[in-house]
Specification:
alpha+beta, Triger factor/SurA peptide-binding fold, Chitinase A, domain 3, 4 domains, 5-stranded antiparallel sheet, globular, disordered N terminus
Length: 635
């Protein structure tokens, strides 16, 4: 099973990403043996998923989305029934896998554990496993060695299950060839657009059509409720700005941690690359090796020709034109085989032998060395100050947050007491619409909901302090408000009529386009101005998927063939397929074929994995408390 994991790393990683496994932090045992409580959301083979676990998973998912989406993140995304169900399904899948791994009695040897831990980059120093670094990092996470290794052992056991599923995804050459032909098919296509403009003048609206539309869609003409508010923000950033540190404090930190400010040795090198992936096939690898060995022989005979030969032969587009120059780099910047060779050269001007990496074969020339040195205090002074201020501000923020929240709640008729006590500025917003977009911090759904609550609008009371993320608490108080209002019919009548005319023109354009398509497919003569033809691929960028689907579904046995697509709100477009070209693979070493096999294998593996999880759901008794899940949104 470990061979399966090693041979299918990318697929295994995909599965682990799909179910967001936290086993390295909790371990299989904790999943299987969790005792739960009376308010469990689900039970899997008698193993419960509690409210506490679910809420923790929701918080973790929120943080992941916040980090991924930045300012575009909206907490309301996770407040839907679908989002809560997805998180619970994720937890159920995790539990199913853990139960199955435990049932199979999967074990991990001490040797496998040692190899796994030694290979983790975070535990390495200069490419080698460092016990002091290992112990320090675990301590920083609040763990000891037995705790971490027990959880990691559980995680590795689970990966054996996933790896076994990945191993079963096999792609035949015949299937890959068929997919290849379809994937890289190219069609010569011209088009003709049937727009709405020719039909607009002929549209006659029925009497009362605009009034009828207005009555049926009154919400479209509502002006949403609006408020102007004043607010104060307690933020870690602002607290950090208020702090001042003496040179003595900064110097003390600098002297206490010299290893943090040490700049490791850097080397400058040039290289010549002949590309050849290790799985490219024996013939391709052999040809690449023979070519690089020939170049290496030329360099040995005339070392001064290195840059010239790099420009002529190197297949690294980023450095070939610069004579192979890669600039200065430290350890960890290059793949290991390349790094070991570059840092193994004794002095400037030395040239390596042939070096094989994941990219192919290299010949490397050392062109510069910067010895390890300590960064001077003046250079890192501001860096140290920013770090210390951030740490102190975080501590102070945690200390003040509860008092700030209590004060805005207890003295709810004004924000001034909180502003004065915490040295904050009372700021005022422009008009904010209930369903509109607003600048930060009012782009936060929870804060907007608080501002538009009855207590805030009618009683002009402070909102609770709301955590809007990134170490910021905000409390607001409504200054003015405008209720939602309906725009009068006479004001919007012309707009409605314009919309109705356009909608009818779209319908007529679509009917005309569909009629012409039928005529073309029957072989009838139709007067159409076709655009100049151009080649299109199935994966063409910048073209809507529905358009590409229509073009590539058009018959290819008899040309020209035709297809048509509705353009939402704009009419219809006809396509004429004039020529179809299907490429053939150059063999198993064709990189395009290799990419197809990988994609196809990944797709099959995903299907197998989904079927495996589905079978586990049938094997174990999965019960979900739907009412409890719905109620969990208010927790």
């Amino acid at each position: 099973m470990f061979d399966a994991v090693r041979n299918n790393k990318k697929i295994v990683q995909l599965f682990l990403l799909l179910i967001t496994l936290p086993f390295a932090f909790f371990g299989v045992d904790s999943y299987v043996k969790n005792s739960g409580s009376g308010g469990d959301l689900a039970s899997i083979g008698g193993s419960p998923i509690s409210q506490v676990e679910f809420q923790q998973a929701m918080r973790e998912q929120q943080e992941r989305l916040r980090n991924a989406m930045g300012e575009n993140f909206n907490p309301a995304m996770l407040e839907t029934a679908e989002a809560r169900k997805a998180v619970l399904d994720n937890l159920i899948n995790q539990r199913l896998l853990a139960l199955d791994a435990s049932k199979m009695g999967l074990t991990v040897s001490d040797q496998q554990m040692r190899e796994t831990i030694a290979a983790i980059p975070a535990f390495q120093d200069n490419g080698q496993f460092s016990l002091p670094r290992y112990e320090a990092l675990l301590k920083a996470q609040g763990m000891n060695q037995p705790m971490f290794e027990s959880r990691l052992r559980s995680d590795l056991a689970l990966k054996q299950v996933v790896g076994a599923v990945a191993e079963g995804a096999l792609v035949s050459s015949v299937s890959a060839e068929r997919v290849f032909a379809v994937q890289f098919e190219e069609r010569q296509v011209s088009d003709a657009r049937i727009g709405t403009q020719p039909f607009v003048g002929g549209v006659k609206l029925a009497d009362g059509a605009a009034q009828k539309f207005y009555d049926a869609n009154r919400s479209r003409f509502e002006i949403p409720a609006q408020v102007r508010a004043e607010y104060v923000m307690l933020s870690q950033e602002a607290l950090a700005a208020q702090l001042s540190l003496s040179d003595a404090d900064l110097r003390k930190e600098y002297d206490a941690h010299p290893e943090r400010f040490r700049q490791g040795e850097e080397r400058r090198a040039s290289h010549i690359l002949i590309q050849a992936r290790k799985d490219a096939g024996e013939a391709a690898v052999k040809a690449a090796r023979e070519k690089i060995e020939g170049i290496a022989a030329q360099i040995k005979a005339n070392p001064a020709d290195f840059a010239k030969l790099a420009k002529e032969h190197s297949q690294d587009p980023g450095s070939a034109e610069k004579g192979g120059d890669l600039g200065f780099f430290g350890r960890g910047a290059m793949v290991k085989a390349f790094e070991d060779a570059a840092f193994g050269l004794a002095k400037e001007g030395d040239v390596s032998g042939v070096v094989q990496s994941d990219f192919g074969f290299h010949v490397i020339k050392l062109t510069g060395v910067k010895a390890e040195q300590a960064r001077p205090f003046e250079e890192v002074r501001n860096e140290i100050a920013a770090e210390l201020k951030k740490l102190e501000a975080g501590r102070k923020f945690a200390e003040l947050a509860e008092g700030f929240s209590n004060l805005v709640y207890e003295q709810a008729d004004s924000l001034k007491p909180a502003a004065e006590k915490y040295k904050l500025t009372v700021q005022t917003t422009d008009w904010i619409a209930r369903n509109g977009k607003a600048p930060a911090p009012f782009n936060n759904e929870k804060l907007v909901t608080a501002v538009f609550s009855d207590d805030a609008v009618k009683n002009k009371r402070n909102t609770d302090a709301v955590d809007v993320g990134k170490g910021v608490l905000v409390a607001a108080r409504v200054v003015e408000s405008k209720p939602a209002a309906l725009r009068p019919f006479d004001e919007v009548k012309a707009e409605i009529e314009k919309v109705l005319v356009q909608e009818e023109a779209v319908v007529q354009a679509e009917k005309d386009g569909e009629k012409k398509l039928v005529q073309l497919n029957k072989g009838e003569a139709v007067s159409i101005d076709w655009s100049p033809s151009r080649p299109l691929k199935r994966m063409e960028q910048g073209i809507p998927p529905e358009v590409l689907r229509a073009i590539f579904r058009a018959p290819s046995d008899k040309l020209p063939s035709y297809a048509g697509v509705k353009l939402p709100g704009a009419g219809y477009v006809l396509f004429r397929v004039e020529k179809v070209t299907r490429p053939t693979s150059t063999g198993k070493d064709d990189p395009r074929m290799q990419a197809i096999k990988q994609q196809y294998s990944r797709l099959l593996a995903e299907q197998d994995f989904a079927a495996y999880v589905a079978s586990l759901r049938k094997r174990y008794d999965v019960k979900v408390n739907a009412a409890m899940l719905e109620g969990s949104k208010d927790k």
